Input
Amino acid sequence: MSRKQIVILGAGTGGTMTANRLRRRFDPDEAEIHVVDRDDRHVYQPGLLFVPFGLADVEEIVRPRRRQLRGGVVFHQNEVEEVRIERDEVLLDDGTVLPYDVLVVATGVRLQADETEGLTGAGWNERVFTFYDPEGAEALRGALERFDGGRLVVNLVDMPIKCPVAPLEFAFLADWHLRERGIRNRTELVYATPLDGAFTKPIASEHLAGLLTEKEIELVTEFNAGEVDGIGGTLTSYDGRELDFDLLVTVPLHGGAPYVERSPGLGDALGFVPTDKQTLQTPVKPNVFALGDATDLPISKAGSVTHFEAEILTENIARYLAGEELDAGYDGHANCFIETGFHKALLIDFNYDTEPLPGHFPTVFGLPLLRESRLNHLGKLAFQWVYWHALLPGREIPGLGPTMPTAGKKRIPVSPERRTR
Ligand SMILES: Cc1cc2nc3c(=O)[nH]c(=O)nc-3n(C[C@H](O)[C@H](O)[C@H](O)COP(=O)(O)OP(=O)(O)OC[C@H]3O[C@@H](n4cnc5c(N)ncnc54)[C@H](O)[C@@H]3O)c2cc1C
Output
């Protein structure tokens, strides 16, 4: 095989794992691997949840991107300007043109707070915050320290968002934090979501709604946020319902990276890249693959998903270059720890066809599923170490792979009507 040129756009979770896996797979004389990212700050994003509560510092969850890449991977610190699909090349913001034999799109999502009227107007980062980026998470920490009771509203503007359970986790941790400080009895906590329940999947949704009730957090459903008045403290939905707040914690609208829209044929109307559910190849062109939050796949935008996808993607790039049939081996496997406060967490595990079920993971002797436990909380904390030292370097982790294990799961029959919710 002549020396191939592989270009990976994005050096976050998916881009870094893919680059390191490919570097292990191919000798330097077989493939040259280029990775592009606009900055040199790799954020461990699950850690952002803990920053507002003083349970993590931003410096602890950020590392240089270059240092996460194996020797022999070429890092370009640049903004991607455009992908020229017909010419198999990428244009960077300094005019560099990177030709490729294989392209991997791993540029995640962009937060579009400006898309909601008033959200980033007066009151932004004073009374209205997001913890979805390091600056916002840190600013919210100051606001929570100053908060002395009132109405705290947590709202996700619309789906899809990355880590769909993160706003719920924020509400649970806020309840714990306020109780610890002795001001919970003078705080109303509200969770407002555009969904018709606490979560997207019926069984997990019921469990999570039960937890919200237990923790006296009001659940407001089918709330499509249309406008924010950060001075008056009002969040208004498109159908005219109003929620007053003293502190608003928002998860803004998500879209794909802007260059996707500027590259004809690459993305859909939201800037996400159409991607084959099982092979991770895109219909854009056979040499274009995508993974992680940047795809349009019908599964959570999560680091776990990105990790499982990276395994199949790496295999399929090797097969594509060898002219072999691709492996249709990704079944939509996703899992997620959900912090519930008081040193406990739930774990959910699911795929395209099976919603989160009770039982144990990965076998009958494993971690409890859909049940709060200290073990799950410890699992969530330990995950940061696993992320830096095993996932990003592209090491195999026994028991964690692209197909969902069924051994420990209890089957609950779900009516077709509930399945479609
Ligand atoms: C608060 C929070 C909590 C979370 N908790 C969890 C959790 O508990 N479990 C879990 O599994 N997942 C969690 N996630 C989600 C997880 O972090 C993401 O799903 C994962 O990082 C996706 O990886 P990715 O490679 O697709 O995108 P990212 O890791 O976001 O990487 C995308 C990269 O592309 C770069 N980029 C974008 N556009 C351009 C451009 N034009 N030019 C150059 N570079 C560009 C960006 O700088 C970025 O580095 C959480 C996310 C958040 C925000």
Notes: Residues 117 and 229 are 9 Å apart (CA to CA).
